[in-house]
Amino acid sequence: MTDASANPATVRQAAAGDEAAFARIVAEHHAPMARVAYAITGDVETAADAVQTAWSTAWRRLGSLRDPLTIRAWLVAIAANEARQVLRRQRRRTLVNIEAIGDLPADGEPGDRISTVDLARVLRGLDPDDRTLLALRFAARLDSPAIAAQLGLTASGVRSRLSRLLERVRTELDHG
Amino acid sequence: MADLQTFETRLQAAYDRYLEAAPTWVDAKAIAAAVNRSGLSREARRWQWGGFSPAMRLAVIGLIVLTLIGAVLAGGSWLRSVVEPSPTATTITSPSPSPIETPVATPSLTEPPAGSLLGASGTIVLAGPCLYELDASTGELVNDCARNEYEVAENGTVFADWLWSPNGQFGIGLGSHSLSLYEPGTGTTTPIAGTESRLPSLGGQTSLRAWSPASNYFVWVGERGVVDEWGVFVGTVENPRLAELPSLRDGSSWSLPLWSADESRAVVNTDEQHAVLANGDGTTIPGALEFDRGEVLALSPNGRQIAFRAIRGEAGNPSTIDVAIGDGFTAPTTATSFSEGLLAVAAAWSTDNSKLAIVTSDDLTTADAGYTLWITDGTGAPRQAGTPIPPGTYPRSIDWSPDGAHVLVLSQEPPESYRMLATVVAVADGRAVLTATTAVFSPDGRFAMYLGPRPSGATGVFIVELATGRTGLFGSAPGGLGAYTSLTWLEETP
Fold this sequence. Notes:
The structure holds two protein chains of two kinds. Chain A is mainly alpha-helical. Chain A has one domain. Chain A contains nine helices and no strands. In chain A, helix 4 packs antiparallel against helix 7 and helix 8 crosses helix 9 (155-175). Chain B is mainly β. Chain B has one domain (41-489): 7 Propeller (Methylamine Dehydrogenase, Chain H). Chain B has five helices and 32 strands. Chain B has helices at residues 2-18, 28-38, 42-46, 54-57, 59-73; strands spanning 78-79, 124-127, 131-135, 140-146, 161-164, 171-174, 179-183, 188-193, 210-211, 218-223, 230-235, 243-244, 258-259, 265-269, 274-279, 290-292, 294-299, 306-311, 321-326, 333-337, 343-349, 356-361, 371-376, 387-388, 394-400, 406-412, 420-426, 432-441, 447-453, 459-465, 471-477, 486-489. In chain B, strands 25-26-27-28-29-30-31 form a seven-stranded antiparallel β-sheet, with no helix packed on it. The termini of chain B are far apart. Chains A and B meet through helix 1, helix 2, helix 3, helix 4 and helix 6 of A and helix 1 and helix 2 of B.
């Protein structure tokens, strides 16, 4: 999946060390990275820290990005990876963050809408890898081939995992 | 299935509302400045694939050679040359060298012979993130590693950064608003882009200059005669503005050309996922193909074979990426294909143009990606089993031994910006025969020279006979293992 808004020249300039070009990339891609990180961590501050770390990683590794047109997917995957690692570290410390629920925007209409509170509850029950997969699909809106490219999986493998994951999420939402 | 799709739609809507709480405010400039301060040094960022001609790997070596030549020619005056600020503190954990069998001559670089390091025993030059300060009248090394200085001031001209030609005869200096060609010894400085001409924002972009492998051409970025319109030019010492790289006239890409070793051809990767073939002097070749949806990885030494990463099907999907070869005039053929998840990131042709070494990555997004070296004959025949590169390192260059029997991969060892891990692989069976801190082949390819710790704790220069594994200590090197990015083995070395 290529990014129509990506400017390869800016990417190359940033890779060559141009701080101003890198700032333009930050301005353009910070929000989707933050969304993905938040979708994985469920916590604003943790997500912000993960994205900050992700930018350091991106700065170091920008020269390895072979196709500048895929920079958005590349960056959100880095943010997802940092957020996933943060989550794993937190889990090792057996900490459970329940405060995020208080930050959630209020849901409006009932009906068949999935409430954000329920979504947060289900996400907290998922392991970091599953949260990452869902975040890349629903927060970054990457398609299966793009997710596969970033995670080193096959597109069919991503589709299978997503299908099983969605069934699980639906079940837990229905019976939670 | 339809039920699941409906659920996906509902879940997407829930995600959209859930993500309204995500942090959105961003001070992009502050983040960019922060990661710049905490990121790799400028020198380390130069060590990147693409935009990096083979000549540039030798730039640091060239600089120390020039230092030594200049010291002699300067007739006793002091000459101070330092290229880059120091890296962070170095912690040395290097692979142990093979057992030492036969010590050989040991010219210590901390006690250089009078006159010059380039004398009879000066057949090895070590280069790193710092250079050495010499008293040219005695040749004595008075400072093991002078850092954090940026000038060469033999003729009073001060420049922040220099890029020396591989043959050591010229340097391109970057001043505050100018580029100049400098000939050491003569003190001659010739403007390439005058001080009246504004240069593009070159902050940190010193890789925008490059020399061709045989030093006949150099590349630079300059104004095209119209304000704020920049071009990439190929020049010679006689005519700095020999040609403007045709594919870059829109000024939107700063990619540098890759030259063949014989300098007959050059290829330029553009920002539009295609590459163009040019003569070595940067001029266009009538009838040459453009390589659409691909990026050139390597040009054979004779300039007649081009290996490029070909993207078929959906762009960005690694499952459709092959390495193809062509001559630039007829339809290319697939040399080898990689399974899903593997992406060819670099390649190099053997010196006889018959084999291709390719490095693949299994994940470009994480620091723990796996890299593998593959050897193929470029005919589409099955390639031999791959050789894994030590994990946690980033491959930066591929070199073939002159006899074609071995391939050397140099990988950056984070967090050390300068230290390079060398993996030498036997082409016959894909076996890694040496893993050490930096390495270089001898001119005949029979030996490799590398750095390793001595029993005393000092850093030693070792030489190994690749066919037998026989290893000997050549000499000592000042500083730690991390002080050197590269070694060079001069032609006259016995």
